[in-house]
């Protein structure tokens, strides 16, 4: 299943509240994400407001379209819009996907090597 990575920019004056809101996301939003094909979804926030998100999904366009149909997403996007300076006010429509240019496991496998090792493992 492919991993997707994207960026967003949070307004610097809203960073603390953005962190607080994501510390306990609404249960119906969590279920909507899960039920529409979002898995292993994580957000990372830098001190200047850069958000880097990653998720795993079979089909990003289908997962986004399914989320678009949920009431939880409509409420969440409206609630989160003030945290961003966006042309259409919707962070879910403004995320900038990044291209994967390096994958350690893939390159090790292509070289005929073991793709992973565990720290501290005996050789």
TrEMBL record:
InterPro entries hit by this protein: Dimeric_a/b-barrel, Rham/fucose_mutarotase
Gene3D superfamilies, sorted: 3.30.70.100
Gene Ontology biological process: rhamnose catabolic process
GO MF, one example: racemase and epimerase activity, acting on carbohydrates and derivatives
Pfam families: rhaM
Record protein name field: L-rhamnose mutarotase
Source species of the chain: Modestobacter muralis
């Amino acid at each position: 299943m492919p991993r997707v990575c994207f960026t967003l920019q949070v307004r610097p004056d809203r960073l603390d509240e953005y962190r607080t809101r994501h510390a306990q996301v609404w249960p119906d939003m969590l279920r909507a994400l899960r039920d529409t094909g979002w898995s292993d979804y994580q957000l990372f926030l830098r001190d200047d407001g850069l958000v880097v998100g990653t998720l795993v999904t079979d089909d990003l366009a289908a997962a986004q379209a399914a989320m678009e149909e949920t009431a939880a997403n409509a409420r969440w996007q409206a609630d989160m819009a003030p945290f961003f300076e966006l042309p259409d006010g919707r962070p879910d429509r403004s995320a900038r996907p990044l291209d994967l240019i390096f994958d350690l496991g893939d390159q090790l496998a292509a070289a005929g090597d073991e793709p992973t090792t565990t720290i501290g493992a005996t050789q």
